[in-house]
Amino acid sequence: MFSACQLSGLLNKQPSARAKISGSVYYPEISGWVIFYQVKGGVILIAEINGLPHGGDLCPASVFGFHIHEGSHCSGTADDPFADTGAHYNPHHCPHPEHAGDLPPLFGNQGYAFMALFTSRFSVDEIIGRTVIIHSSPDDFTTQPSGNSGEKIACGHILSTY
């Protein structure tokens, strides 16, 4: 397993893969990176996102669905700018929320989100060429097949850094 003490050394190394995140035409202010490190026992995923929608009231809607999708292109139609990303990455045909691509939600802080996660649901090699999606609403972790996470508002194509 990967220990928290090893994280500081890992951050000085080149990640195994990365995805540059860009918002849809309806959310052009969203940008950021998701990086992936292959480590013993799994993958460290680190996400840093700016420009997320946020409200000014005491209870802003600032929790976003976050998934790896099976598709290989951040393209689509006028109604769904990221339609070509397909469904959640799910090589073992598991029910939601047990898809390999199901991730914890992103919590926005005045439009900014940061997350670090360790997962053994996939290896970096398995997700190279796939996409990372940010949705407008949090995943409910119940609704089939994809958690009722709402509109796809941002996307990134996962590329190897080697």
How are the strands of the biggest sheet laid out side by side? Answer: 5-8-9-1-2-3-7
- How far from one another are the termini? 24 Å
Class from helix and strand fractions: mainly beta
Quick one: overall form?
Answer: globular
Strand content range: 25-35%
How many DSSP H or I helices?
2
Over the alpha carbons, how many angstroms does the gyration radius reach?
15 Å
Low-confidence stretches: none
Order of helices and strands: HEEEEEEEHEE
Q: Give the beta-strand count.
A: 9
Task: Bin the helical content.
Answer: under 10%
Largest sheet: 7 strands, antiparallel
The averaged pLDDT comes out at: 91
Task: Describe this entry's structure for a reader.
This protein has about 160 residues and is mainly beta. About 5% of the residues lie in helices and about 35% in strands. The chain contains 2 helices and 9 strands. The chain has helices at about 5-10, 125, and strands spanning about 15-25, 30-40, 40-50, 65, 65-70, 105, 115-120, 130-135, 150-160. The strands form 2 sheets. The protein has a 7-stranded antiparallel β-sheet. A two-stranded antiparallel sheet has the order 4-6.
